[in-house]
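Q: Convert this sequence to structure tokens.
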Amino acid sequence: MKELNQCWSGIARMSGSAAGAALALSIMLTLAVLATGSAQAQTFTNFDAPGAGTGLHEGTIAIGINTAGTITGFYLATGNVAHGYVRAVSGTITTFSIAAAGAASNQGTFPVAINTAGTIAGMYFDENNLYHGFVRAAGGAITKFNVGRAGTGKHQGTTPIGINNAGVVVGTYKDATDVYHGFLRSATGTITVFSVGKAGGGTYQGTRAVGINTAGAITGTYQDSSNVYHGFLRSPTGAITVFNAPGAGTGTDQGTTPIAINTAGVIAGVYTDSSTVAHGFVRAADGTITTFDAPGASKDAWLATLLPSHGIPDQGTIPFSISTSGTITGTFVDAAGTLEGFKRVAGGTISSFTDPDSGTGALQGTVGLSINAAGDVAGSYVDASNVLHGFVRTP
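A:
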């Protein structure tokens, strides 16, 4: 799907058409010499939100985990309607929905990020498939918002994607001509919009902001007039630096897509090469870029024919989150088309992990979606019946 931000496209692949339409937050979503890490003690705790569906591509998706270990995400109930939840460290799950959210398939409430205070940022789709932003305080109070320049047509509107510890929300809005722009919303509600100067102005082109750190530095991607993706870093003062990962393709829907930025200003992301194979990259605060692949990640061309990609790679390595220490988590697709989770420490060592209850078929398996300072990973796995479940993995 092209309606949303590229950073969640891997989730769309993982969860099938329902979550793809819901989350296609339009995120895509030079091999480094890396060694597979040695096996370490690890504990998986699996969970399902109350009310989560048990049908094809229904279930629970764990999106974010904060320093305390509180997890947020959404669940797809019967009929593929989405609802939000918060899971406390004790395991208690509280569900919530925005009253104005639609109740049809692929509509509902979609939390996407949680900060140290437990404040959640997210979006909801109304009955007309228009996107709106919301912030939910730890106590449960919800504030809805829209970017003033956002379009009001189908699949237009406001899509928050990240929140920092100061309560600043970052995200993307689509205007009335279906062009993307970045925005940030202060904790008091002031909204600032921005676009990268080199971004294209055609349908589904433009600027997509996906991550913000404590200092207020923002990262994301922009699509140029040739439909190629490039990375950008926006400083807290508004200065924008653009960059490309070595080896990134220059064809339609190829290029560089940052996913997350940590407190030190280190950016993790994915780039797609000229064969539309996904690879990970890390951009240090000084601008140095290191590329990497998870050991076992497939580069077999047949995987690219499994699903129509729309720029979303069906193969390779896809990072999703980076911790304060520089540890990255994400997923990779192996030679059988199965999804596996990975962690890459700042020194470059990569270890893979698989939830013991995950399926082993094509596009089944384990996806690490968020990592906190303690190294705990929150994510989802797809079982043998193609139902989704949440997990937290502790080192």
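The two ends are 34 Å apart (CA to CA).
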